[in-house]
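Two quick folds needed for the group meeting slides. Do the first one here.
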Amino acid sequence: MQNKLIKIFQRAKYSPGRHLADNIWFAITQRDKRMNQIKLWIFTLAGIASLLGFVPAFIRLSEDLAQSGFYEYFSLIFSDSRSILLNWKEFIYSVTESLPASGLILTLSLVFTCLLSLRYLMKQIDKSQFLYTSTKILSI
């Protein structure tokens, strides 16, 4: 990239200062480093916030499942499986009706947010290590 900048200035018949291309490249890499650090902190904070929000959401989900009777319907699978096989459509309707949708959506969205921010966090860490090594190689 640095050699490309020098060639562009040479083709433009512009006589830049001795270190203009180096200064431009340094400014570009510094901006990329700063943006990567900002993204790294944003994804870290989003992951921590979703992880901290997961605990109360999971407690609420388990309480809602206990109040809705989901555990009673689910225990029928182990105690009375013959009647479930005969009336499987009604059983599925009863189980899905007893699921607390809001608590389930909240808990799963927090898990999804945590995993997604962890994924992007790993990408940013990998990218920042690449930028650090590339600028170190160029400065030598």
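Then this one, please, same format:
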Amino acid sequence: MTAAWPLYGHQAAEATFLKARDNGRLHHAWMLKGPQSIGKSILARRIGALMLGAASLDASVEDPVVQKIMSDGHPDFRWLARRPDDKGKLKQNIPVDDVRDLIAFFSLRPALGGWRVGVIDSLDELNTNGANALLKTLEEPPGNCLIILVNHGAKPVLPTIRSRCRVLRLSPLSDADVATALRPLADGDVDVNAAARLARGRPGRGVRLVSPASLAAANAARTLLRAAPSIGDGALSAFIKLASVDAVSFEAAVTELLDGLSEAAPQSAHAATVWLDISAIAAEAAALTLERGQAASRIAGRLLTLDTAA
């Protein structure tokens, strides 16, 4: 049967966890560290279900433990992440009160007689108060409790937190593994291998971008980047049109440009400057303060000035 939460390319990380569990040396806190969208949250769910009695890491949706977790009805499992505010907008951070609720959850005895598992997704979204509140539980963990911290590496982790966790480092996947992850989700018209290349080792990114429109926008962005700064009118028009189709196409185009510029940045200070400018324009579009067509036009304008030799 198909796993409830399929995971590809992270067999070594899973084997490390299983070895610690089977040898009776299971640490109370595990930090899953690596770039965003490579599968850390999926691994956290797989581990959580296993510790609460699922048949295996690859347990299917028919597993009773998996069903309880999927329905948010397992009494011994908590998932802590950012929530929308009263206006429906996602909060900037995980509130400290939510962290305190998780700590209170850990202080209780397991309802089903086994373990209690709590996941914080992600550590990057805890503010200083939240991180300090968590620290006491990491220092004095209750028995039969497992804490899983997802860490994207977007900001430094307090040394006092890092030192109290067993770290599992996850790396971006190969294009082949990303393609395998995307294939069941793709329409028949999509070039899955092209989508995998666009994902740059991050299947979560690929899931968002796997569509004919997004791949066309990415190809237009790649064409623009290769030609810059001597970009023809046809390439400019095609980029602006394709990047403006929808939010996913815009993200695909920007992702392709930023990745390409980041590769050039170590040898070109100007490429790094253009990277920052395009990031700022994309942020305006994401905040809905700039229409996508206007944003794409401004981005194209910045590429007209690109001099990777500078």
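Slide caption for protein two: The mean pLDDT is 91.
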